[in-house]
Amino acid sequence: MQTKRMTFSSRWLPYALLAPQVLITLVFFVWPASQALWQSMLREDPFGLRSTFVWFRNFERLFADPHYLDAMKTTAIFSVATTFLAMAVSLLFAVMVNRMLRSRDWYTTLLVWPYAVAPAIAGVLWWFMFNTSVGIVPYMLQGFGYDWNHRLDGTDAMILVVIAAAWKQISYNFLFFLAGLQSIPQSLIEAASIDGAGRIKRFWTIVFPLLSPTTFFLMVVNVVYAMFDTFGVIHATTEGGPARATNILVYKVFRDGFVGGNLGSSAAQSVILMAIVIVLTVIQFRWIERRVNY
Amino acid sequence: MARIVMDDLHKVYPGGVKAVTGISLDIADGEMIVLVGPSGCGKSTLLRMVAGLETITGGTLSIGDRVVNTLEPADRDIAMVFQNYALYPHMTVYNNLAYGLRNQGVAKPEIERRVQEAAAMLQIGDYLQRKPRALSGGQRQRVAMGRALVREPSAFLFDEPLSNLDAKLRVQMRVEIRQLQKRLGTTSLYVTHDQLEALTLADRLVVLNAGRIEQVGTPMELYQRPETLFVAGFIGSPAMNMIEMGYLRDRGAAPSTLPAGTDLVGMRPDDMLLSAPAEPHLSLSGRVMLLEPAGAESHIYVSLDGNDQPITVRIPGLPTMQEGAAITLHVPLGALHPFNTASGRRVSG
């Protein structure tokens, strides 16, 4: 691609044109980020009256804190499980809807609805459905002899937040997978069926590899969603409990900072999260994207 | 190697559209059959029915003495070359060729042998490790052929395989396909809308129109003795001239040799001569509207006296007359094609 070189009559015009963008970035990104960086090196006294500059002490404490390392593990489990569930279910839906001819548009419209539900509302919905005393799901599970209690059992709680978080993302993934499936030429599928591949084999050897650009894109979006955008779901269902079993990093930032009042540690955690996002993005785009292009 | 028999095949789509209405055709083992017709005539649908990509809604289809109506495409022992090649973009050329064999459970050394053999035959040996996007149109075409070859099927199906190539490559690939098919002796069904391709490739040519067979025969039979008005107009380029019997009568040029019931007379552009032949002929006079030199031959568009329909004449070399000049055309009586417009058929006699 050739870059065009523009010439402006006034020296200041290009700066003036760039200014709004730069200003927005400064106010809404650079300034808060630098505040977080600064605050992550401060330590407040118990009454919030004074703060002391402590260099990297907040970070040192965090990495020595077993709760923090646990939260990292929880986050990893949560985001991998959520991403996998959300993508697997939506791919299944997309494959099924793609085979329909007449009612395809209806199903697509209906399947997109959950995306319009606010995360907190969705959380409350799941809270009711899984409520140990009035919820329908524990009641039914009891019929199978399973005693569901996400308030006491950490695994139950994790399953609940994964389902609730994944449910939210399925609509979005579904739309992309459906578009991806429709962009695969029908003649490839036909050629494969003449080449003796059955339905399942065709899917795994032809359709799935050809979907890989879509899959890759959705993986990035879903991991980022699960790690950073699921605060509402967790806050409305388990509040990180029981015993920190669903206390993911983003939720811990909120708990430590706004509930626990430890602003310095909370800021340090935000900085670490920021670093994680940067690393994730670089890894995914530099390393994985190279493998999905053909 | 197989004989393909179509017995009264029908295809009605769920919406009620009839694409194929009662086609019967017996294809001998090793024969190259070309299906030709205008778009929407059902030729591709028929091919896809043979392949198993479209369900058959009536009649029976057998390949090699086995009724295959309800068999999956994979179980019909056929291979198909698609119009857009349909190469798997994420696989190397080698894997594209090997894919079908692996699905059949062919042993690895045997796959290797067959792929190398096909690659050598099609001269694509150097590209085996490339992906399809790194190949030119002609190379992709060869890979698509190779994918059909390695399967060693009992029949090849070609769905307009050359329509995406440029003119020069098309001629070259046409020759190669014909040579390959003759060498392997595999029964082939070839769909095209290009009549030159049809005439040059076919052992027998099938002209389809509106889901029915108009005429079946060798290319020469169809060219020299079209049985219907449709075939007469479809085969041959430039198209056959049609002159009404009434016009000939008015001019006193109606030959008495034509059978009763003839009301339209067809004349090939190359049978319209500028100088009178020795054999019995009829003569028509007119005026030159347009001269169209086309290299080795030229086309002369003539408007006959008292008739506004232009007539095409094909002559070898360059024309010597001027546009607007008076001209007399001579047509040997043996070269006239008598038709009846009501039945749309040739009048025999």
Number of strands of chain A: 2
Number of strands of chain B: 18
The level-1 CATH class of the largest domain in chain B: Alpha Beta
CATH class of the domain at 76-182 and 212-293 in chain A: Mainly Alpha
Task: Characterize the main sheet of chain A.
Answer: 2 strands, antiparallel
Helix-strand string of chain A: HEEHHHHHHHHHHHH
Question: Could you explain how this protein is built, in words?
Answer:
The complex is a heterodimer of chains A (294) and B (349). Chain A is mostly helical and 294 residues long. Chain A has a domain at 76-182 and 212-293: MetI-like (MetI-like fold, Orthogonal Bundle). Helix content of chain A is 72%, strand content 2%. Chain A has 13 helices and 2 strands; from the N terminus they run αββαααααααααααα. Chain A has a two-stranded antiparallel ribbon with strand order 1-2. The radius of gyration of chain A is 24 Å and the shape is globular. Chain B is an alpha+beta fold. In chain B, a hairpin with a 4-residue loop joins strand 17 (337-340) and strand 18. Chain B is elongated, with a radius of gyration of 24 Å. The mean pLDDT of chain B is 90. Chain A binds chain B through residues 185, 187-188, 190-198, 201, 205-206, 209-210, 212, 294, and chain B through 51-53, 72-74, 78-80, 82-84, 86, 88-90, 99-100, 103-104, 131, 133, 147, 151.
Question: What brief labels describe this structure?
Answer:
heterodimer; A: MetI-like fold; two-stranded antiparallel ribbon; 2 strands; 72% helix; B: alpha+beta; OB fold (Dihydrolipoamide Acetyltransferase, E2P); 2 domains; four-stranded antiparallel beta sheet; 27% helix; 31% strand; UgpAE/MalFG_permease (chain A); transmembrane (chain A); cell membrane (chain A)
